[in-house]
Amino acid sequence: MDRFQIRGGKPLHGTVTISGAKNSALPAMAAALLTAEPVTLHNIPMVRDIITMARLLAFMSARVTTTDFPAADYTIEAATLNGAVAPYELVKTMRASILTLGPAVARAGIAHVSLPGGCSIGARPVDLHVAALAKMGAEISTDHGYIRAKAPGNGRLKGAHIIFEKITVTGTENLLMAATLAEGETNLENCAREPEVTDLIHLLRKMGAEIHGDDTSTLRIRGVEKLHGAIHSVIPDRIEAGTFLVAGAITGGDLTITNCAPAHLGAVIAKLEKAGAPIETPNATTLRVRGTKALAAADVTTEEYPGFATDMQAQYMALATQAEGTSVITETIFENRFLHASEMMRMGANISIEGRRAVVRGPAKLTGTTVQASDLRASAGLVLAGLVASGETIIDRVYHIDRGYERIVEKLQAVGADIERLHSKDG
Ligand code: UD1
Q1: Lower CB count within 10 Å: N or C terminus of the chain?
Q2: How far is 332 from 122, CA to CA, in rounded Å?
Q3: Taking a C-beta distance cutoff of 8 angstroms, is the pair 14, 157 a contact?
Q4: Ligand 1: which residue has its CA nearest to atom 21?
Q5: What is the pLDDT of residues 16-39, one digit of tens each?
Q6: Distance from the CA of 95 to the center of ligand 1, in angstroms?
Q7: HSE-up of 131 (CA within 13 Å, CB side)?
Q8: Against a cut of 0.90, is the pTM above it?
Q9: In 10 A of CB 41, how many CB atoms?
Q10: 96 CB less than 6 Å from ligand 1?
Q11: Any bridge partners for residue 85, and if so which?
């Protein structure tokens, strides 16, 4: 297994270009299952989860074409579907594989999708996806770790009125996709409003879907018989951009972040400014952060969009270890998302965990040691901690970070970080 070696203490200076959003690219790729015609996607990030999704779609009989592998441009043509089976071997590393369930059952009338794996951040069930599809008339059974969904007699799901008990991002996306090909109208209430959901709506509309309610928590979808091909460029990755904002702030550097969407980063920008890191928005696709030696504590509570993203919580914790005073970080979305805290404590951070709250007292002098990455965003938090720690930090199990950050080592090196990937001898 590859590891990262970081020698901390260097302020980062220069320009970082943000890649496409993994969490937009994954549903966009799954949406290609809704039509027999080709869907061409641009600005796809070159990360492991995308490769997994491409393999999964290919297994389901879609033709996946790229100039290279990995690449930023994909064409997916699902002329036929193979009874729509998503096998455990392909989905075990990626929870987002559940995104194939809605489109596959809507298009093929039947789908057989392994229960997903993914980040180890709590139970993360898919009960809301399944209950909502059942409301659309799907017969659902689970056996041997697989979900089997079958559309009613004529093979088409039926429009329904669905109120999500809890806000779920991929649940909203799954049902949105399923509803585009259903018979009649579907109303989805208490939907996620993440920019990635809106991006999916834009793609589906280009494919011929009738959807109303963009950026709101109530979506109305009038099902159509067929969707067609489309060309779409996915939005920039707001979590990658946020991670680099913290990197600039925490190292006392000066980073310009291009190709990003500042409009999607409101809560993160406001919090970093409150913590004493001034952020400028020179234009609609660029941010600049200038670090300061005097970061101040600020409390954070994770929330659904437009609140502070849970996917930025670990990175913010790294920053809080360097801020003067006590920051209380409350995680409301996932129940087990503080695994990075104990690793940061091993580096010298002063953190105590009380249920869903982490109390971080700073500034702490971090020192390098060997730490374990436990999930995708936790790994990013540890990289940030390593960038300010004295001496050498080794981060183990970086396959987690490779799932979602494109060329993070190269991007950090280009702005002056002392970071290397140590390739494992066992391949
Ligand atoms: C998506 C993102 C992930 C992000 C998360 C929250 C993708 C591919 N992943 O994950 O990066 O951290 O949103 O912003 O877009 N829940 C249930 N039952 C369900 C579904 C969810 O109880 O059927 C719970 C979850 O356990 C969690 C909460 O709802 O506590 C929110 O999860 P959800 O929004 O579904 O996360 P994902 O869509 O998996």
Answers
A1: C
A2: 12
A3: no
A4: 168
A5: 999 999 999 999 999 999 999 999
A6: 9
A7: 12
A8: yes
A9: 25
A10: yes
A11: 112
